[in-house]
Amino acid sequence: MRYTTLGNSGLRVSELCLGTMTFGTEWGWGADAAVSARLFEQYLAAGGNFIDTANYYTQGSSERILSALIAPYREELVVATKFSLNMDRKGLNTGGNHRKNIRQALEASLKRLQTDYIDLYWLHAWDFTTGIEEVMRTLDDLVSSGKVLYIGISDTPAWIVSQANMMAQLRGWTPFQAIQIEYSLIQRTVERELLPMAESLGLSVLAWSPLGSGVLTGKYNQEAVAADAGRLKPDSRRLAARNLELAAEVRRLAADLGCSSAQLALRWVMQRGPHVIPILGARKPEQLADNLAVTQLTLSPQVLERLQEASAVDMGFPLDFLRSDNIRDIIFGEKRLGS
Questions:
Q1: What is the pTM of this model?
Q2: Do 195 and 170 meet the contact criterion of CB atoms below 8 Å apart?
């Protein structure tokens, strides 16, 4: 396991993050407490120190299960949890990004995790109702109180993250150090705005669903889809023909390299940049063992190029427009930079 720093901070985190949305069986498909403990110890044994959960995961069970697991290692671990999603569907202010919910969500998470501080506190999803100033001032207050050390933001448009960090910089408040986004070979549209923004601002990128909800492992093939689409877990958009063809290409390339499809897909994400960190979401020890073995794999430029071509997406306007030869000729004329 290798390590990097989180965003512009000096906080050291492992190159793979353990996602614990699978800790707990309340949603009907997770791991019970005993299996969760095995997964946790397996990850620590491999050198990992970065744990990601959320108050919403398995109705709070993920945090409760983690409480006993993290206790012996609390000073060694970077524990991240989240707020935003509604914990009581009938409650008016039991979700969202306003000051009241941020504070009550934090206190509830601290209680479930049985800790007195959170290393990284994520805004889980932008609600489009709370002002950026209210969010950033509230989070800065939590950092000042010592209950939160660093903050991050998940599932939010790039322009909002940029505005939030600029506001924090100008007012002397705590900025976001990381974003969390869906990113994989089948979800590359984040390369249009979110990834360039993160690189420009020096933010770490936590990639959730780096295996495309299992599609990139190759377990969902054309025959399985035709035979029993109703039992397949991913949403139907992930099982589009293009994604299944890409999964088949990943499977063929992995066979040539002598690794698993999952390892190949994870390694592609890891090699997108030094601050891109996949979140592992295994439900079984054998799945996690296979995922963790990705640390022994490196992809050559030729393999990366083959994957890039197979998974390429349209960058859209304005990127494709501005990169076109015609527009670049209009901007620079005959004497382009470097000529």
A1: 0.93
A2: no
Residues 6+ apart with CB under 8 A from 211: 184, 217, 262, 265, 266
Note whether residue 332 is domain-resident.
no
The enclosing domain of 226 has a CATH number of: 3.20.20.100
Q: Confirm if 221 and 32 have CB atoms less than 8 A apart.
A: no
Each residue of 206-222: b (16+ CB within 10 Å) or e? bbbbbbbbbbbbbebee
Q: Is 124 part of any domain? A: yes
For 153-159, what is the mean pLDDT?
98
318 upstream amide cis, omega within 30 of 0: yes
Q: What is the DSSP letter of 60?
A: G
Selecting among 57, 121, 183, 220, the annotated active-site residue is 57
Q: Does residue 215 lie in a domain region? A: yes
pLDDT in tens, 279-320: 999 999 999 999 999 999 999 999 999 999 999 999 999 999
Domain that holds residue 197: 3-311
Q: Could you report how far apart the first and last alpha carbons of the chain are, in Å?
A: 43
The Cα–Cα gap between 226 and 241 comes to 12
Q: Indicate the number of domains in the chain.
A: 1
Residue 110, Cβ neighbours under 10 Å: how many? 17
| 150-160 average pLDDT score | 98
Burial 142-162 (b: 16+ CB within 10 A, else e): beeeebbbbbbbbbbebeebe
Please give the radius of gyration of the chain, using alpha carbons only, rounded to the nearest integer: 21
Task: Confirm whether 57 is a catalytic residue.
Answer: yes
Longest dimension (CA), the chain: 67
Residue 318 lies in a domain: no
Give the pairing type, strands 50-52 and 78-83.
parallel
Cα–Cα distances (Å) from 68 to 65, 89, 120, 264, 307, in that order, read 6, 28, 19, 33, 41
pLDDT in tens, 105-123: 999 999 999 999 999 999 9
